[in-house]
Design brief:
- The longest helix has 22 residues.
- Strand 4, helix 6 and strand 5 form a beta-alpha-beta unit.
- By secondary structure, the chain is α/β, with parallel strands linked by helices.
- The strands form four sheets. The protein has a six-stranded parallel sheet with strand order 3-2-4-5-7-6, with helices on both faces.
- The chain starts with a helix and ends in a 24-residue tail after the last strand.
- The structure holds adenosine-5'-diphosphate, ligand TZD and magnesium ion.
């Protein structure tokens, strides 16, 4: 155990040279992260971690300070998803920790690796509940909401604590990890050389997990017997960064594939085997479905019911998490392992003379695609003013087709549902959205991390309600001068702006906002570019200019307040009062 904080101060003032032989908790945390190639921190400063951020910046780390921890947490989770290294979110105690906890839980739900590092108050006082500054038993609170939670009490354990957190976040099914650092720990000192030796560089943090050969053979047997096979790609497949192997599997098999929203672009949405525009048909009519990094949760109607039609189905599932198998329906051929290893094993075992599915299946899928795309096309070219979702998204769809390197961030209800089906994505991991929970508020944090981690231009397409959850972070975007263009789909409210107060009272309805708000003026307040766009042409011009200049921009896109539907495409999940219906 090293000397106390008081000791180090005394030694520093009396003898500067000698202080160099000591290190402390702050430096050990920073050194441990850097040793593991983690060079960016997303957070909000304050007691007891202000100096941690300051010293991390001094040590050459990129420290991005946010206006609210939840947004910093969403940024960290996005960084984890895009890089396969845990994103770091740094917060103060109790309230800061709780703000960050939402995004930690969300990261865990999405299977994204991140580490929430929170400072905490004095253990002795917290445990006796004597009322410390920002007192809370954070470790106990975090435990149920993330993949793993640890606390470090001694400076010499910082190295091992951070190593455990990293490995827990990225190995197996990735997820969120909480790391509790009490204030006292950060000030603890120890001999610098012993400190350096105590650090741990994690070896092979996410080891490959090879599938059993018999599991691979079984999967291929099931696929071989299929008349109408389908591949479903999920965000686990995008996370795995096995892009070439996945593309090879789809193309070699000749099986139509359906990308879940964040798997769009793994193969370009314009790929001949994409079944995106024939979603209903392929889910209903398929007889064998191979899931790659996609869960049969609510987003896939739990693998049963109307969505899946009445044809008997057999499922093949590739996932790193064995417990995922049989979670909702029987999995005929589970393939447990990491997606890179599983897909390359399948590719190899398929050999070079794989028979593609019967031509009539491809014909049926293509016919449906064509009809649906033909129906959509004129809607996307409409020039209605005020704009409807199709007119505005048709404009943005063209922009992305011309600029496929742009990362699209997307949240809202109608704004999300329409954009997901209308905007084609051409490259892997270029679409980031509300994920498994359908959470509002990911927008600005996600956009910031996407820009910071990749350097690519970012286009955030946001419902006006969705934007409000993280809107203050446009100051952060301006402060770091990030190439982010936010387009707010302003339809005066949640879902639409036309609702009325059933009581007839003077308050507006619960889903309605101030009409005609000018979100563009918010951006101008921080020195960014604000544009008010009423037509598809104005929208196109503004977004193209933003992407060309790389300047932080917010486009207030006026959308017809009557255009949306309640809850977008998931209105069926909304319980309705039967009693109040007249
Ligand atoms: P989507 O919402 O796109 O359908 P989900 O989040 O439901 O996707 O599913 C992602 C799945 O991918 C999870 O079950 C997770 O365990 C799995 N997964 C994540 N990374 C890997 C990986 N590297 N190898 C195998 N499976 C993975
Ligand atoms: N709070 C959180 C954290 N997540 C949520 N999903 C919701 C509330 C409920 N909710 C939705 O599911 S969508 C939405 C809310 C509040 C906003 C929809 O309005 P919008 O989009 O303006 O963002 P559209 O285009 O007007 O439909
Ligand atoms: Mg709205």
């Amino acid at each position: 155990m090293g000397s106390t904080a008081v000791d180090i101060r005394a030694r520093k003032t009396s003898d500067g040279a000698e202080a160099g032989t000591l290190t402390d908790g702050f430096h050990l945390v920073i050194d441990a992260l850097k040793l593991n190639d983690i060079n960016t921190i997303y957070g909000v400063p304050g007691i007891p971690i202000t100096d941690l951020g300051r010293l991390a910046q001094a040590a050459g780390m990129r420290v991005i300070s946010f206006r609210h921890e939840q947004n910093a947490g969403y940024a960290a989770a996005t960084a984890g998803y895009l890089t396969k290294k845990p994103g770091i979110c740094l917060t103060v105690s109790a309230p800061g920790f709780l703000n960050g906890l939402v995004s930690l839980a969300n990261a865990t739900t999405n299977c994204f690796p991140m580490i929430l590092i929170s400072g905490s108050s004095e253990r002795e006082i917290v445990d006796l509940q004597q009322g410390d500054y920002e007192e809370m038993d954070q470790l106990a609170v975090a435990k149920t909401l993330c993949k793993a939670a640890y606390r470090v009490l001694h400076a010499e354990d910082i190295g091992i604590g951070i190593a455990r957190a990293i490995r827990a976040a990225v190995s197996g099914r990735p997820g969120g990890v909480y790391l509790d650092l009490p204030a006292k720990l950060l000030g603890q000192t120890m001999d610098a050389e012993a400190g350096a030796k105590s650090l741990v560089k994690v070896v092979d943090a996410a080891p490959r997990q090879l599938p059993a050969p018999e599991a691979v053979a079984r999967a291929l047997d099931v696929l071989k017997g299929a008349k109408r096979p389908l591949i479903v790609l999920g965000k686990g497949a995008a996370y795995a960064q096995a892009d070439d192997d996945i593309r090879a599997l789809v193309e070699k098999s000749g099986i139509p594939y359906l990308p879940m929203s964040m798997a769009k672009g793994l193969l370009p949405d314009t790929h001949p085997l994409s079944a995106g525009p024939a979603r209903s048909l392929v889910l209903q009519e398929s007889d064998v479905v191979m899931l790659i990094g996609a869960r049969l949760n609510w987003l896939l109607s739990h693998g049963k019911g109307q969505t899946w039609g009445d044809q008997p189905k057999q499922f093949v599932q590739i996932d790193i998490e064995p417990k995922e198998m049989d979670s909702n329906v029987k999995i005929a051929a589970p393939v447990v392992g990491d997606i890179g290893s599983c897909v390359s094993a399948l590719n190899e075992a398929m050999g070079d003379d794989w028979t593609p599915p019967p031509a009539e299946w491809a014909r049926a899928v293509n016919a449906k695609k064509r009809t649906n795309l033909e129906k959509l096309a004129p809607k996307l070219r409409n020039n209605n003013v005020p704009m409807d979702f199709h007119g505005a998204l048709g404009a943005l769809r063209t922009i992305i087709s011309e600029r496929p390197d742009v990362i699209l961030v997307n949240e809202g209800a109608n704004t999300l549902d329409f954009a997901r089906s209308i905007i084609d994505i051409y490259q892997p991991r270029k679409r980031l959205d509300v994920g498994t929970w359908g959470v509002m508020g990911i927008g600005m944090g996600t956009a910031i991390a996407a820009a910071v981690e990749t350097g690519s231009p970012v286009l955030a397409v946001e419902g006006d309600s969705a934007f409000g959850f993280s809107g203050m972070e446009i100051e952060t975007i301006c402060r770091y001068n990030l190439p982010v263009c936010v387009v707010v789909f302003n339809n005066n409210g949640i879902y639409r702006g036309t609702d009325v107060n059933l009581s007839g009272g003077s308050d507006v309805a619960t889903t309605v906002f101030v009409k005609g708000s000018r979100y563009d003026k918010m951006m101008e307040a921080f020195g960014g570019v604000g544009v008010h766009a009423e037509t598809p042409d104005e929208l196109i011009r503004a977004v193209n200019e933003a992407v060309d200049s790389g300047k932080p921009t917010l486009v207030n896109a006026v959308i017809d307040e009557k255009a949306g539907t309640e809850s977008g495409r998931i209105g069926n999940l909304n319980p309705q009062s039967v009693v109040s219906k007249k």
